Amino acid sequence: MALLICASDRDTSRLAARVAAMAPGVNVRNWPDIGQPEDIDFAVLWRQPPGLLPRLTGLKAVSSLGAGVEHLVNDPDLPEHLPLGRLAGPKLASDMAAYLVAQVLWHWKGLDRFAGQQSERRWQPWTPRHTPTIGLLGYGHLGQACARAFQALDLPVTAWTRSGQSIDDTVVHSGASGLATLAAQADYLICLLPLTDQTRGILNQRLFTTMKPDSVLISVGRGPHLIEADLAPALEQRRPALAILDVFDQEPLPADHPFWQHPQIRITPHCSAITRSDEAAELIVESYHRVRKGLPPLGLVKRERGY
Ligand code: NDP
Ligand code: OXD
Q1: Count of structural domains within the chain
Q2: Of the residues 193, 220, 225, which should be mutated to test ligand 1's pocket, given the most ligand atoms within 8 Å of the CB?
Q3: Is 222 a catalytic residue?
Q4: Is 66 in the pocket of ligand 2 (CB under 6 A)?
Q5: pLDDT per residue over 215-266, tens digit each?
Q6: Which end of the chain has fewer CB atoms at under 10 Å, N or C?
Q7: One domain for residues 53 and 103
């Protein structure tokens, strides 16, 4: 029996060492040193290399190394019956909330202008007149943590989900008309959806025309949520007037991509919330112990829903 950690785009040796230190009895393997593949009964995967899964014939369950699971849900080599989990802990959610609050406050409070004024030794107090409404597309683990952070600042939050189920006092919309209602109200429209067949391309021209004039789009879910070609014309119409993008179709964003130079686009390199190795290690150990006891891994994904 062994636990495999594999991320093809980063070095996970320190994470594997941390897991091994936390769970001394567990045989921890770090890709590409996988040893006898049939020994591995639980694999924690991120952008797994093609051809790896069919070699892991002893798997009882797998987990995404992050919160997103589309790399596993869409892998034809992932057996249908295999329980699939994900690592989405409270620190990841706080990290996302901190990023979004920082982006919204920086813009709403007009902090850019003061940097310019300071360089000119100009004293010109200013404060925004209106309290903005936050619209969250997706109100799951991350969305709810972000809502709490905005609500703590007295900023009203409205959400949109698949089920439309209300979770606390937040108004939750669903369906096409609910999406249009939320987009028309939101000063900051934040995409925190998982990438599924239903959500791919959801940030498109049709949605943009329903957005509030001079609003801001913040895209932190996945790049393919956005139809990239629809964004520049929408920015010209100022619906939205600014796009803050953390995720892209192609990552890293190619150096010749027009988004880099667009005056109404701000870019961060897919780091709005990063799975920290201390939290990841704890969750991996807990998830592995669950699987060994015959329980589902942490963050069990409903495969038929895609998230
Ligand atoms: P959850 O699975 O906890 O929540 C997903 C939410 O999206 C739920 O509210 C769900 O609705 C809603 N949803 C799913 N499909 C639809 C649909 N078709 N229409 C409307 N709403 C829908 O996910 P998390 O909050 O943990 O994470 C969200 C995503 O954030 C991840 O999948 C990942 O892609 C991204 N992410 C990005 C990071 C970054 O650094 N940029 C870091 C971490 C995650 P319902 O409540 O009805 O089920
Ligand atoms: C994740 C991510 O899904 O970092 O965890 O994008």
Answers
A1: 2
A2: 193
A3: yes
A4: yes
A5: 999 999 999 999 999 999 999 999 999 999 999 999 999 999 999 999 999 9
A6: N
A7: no
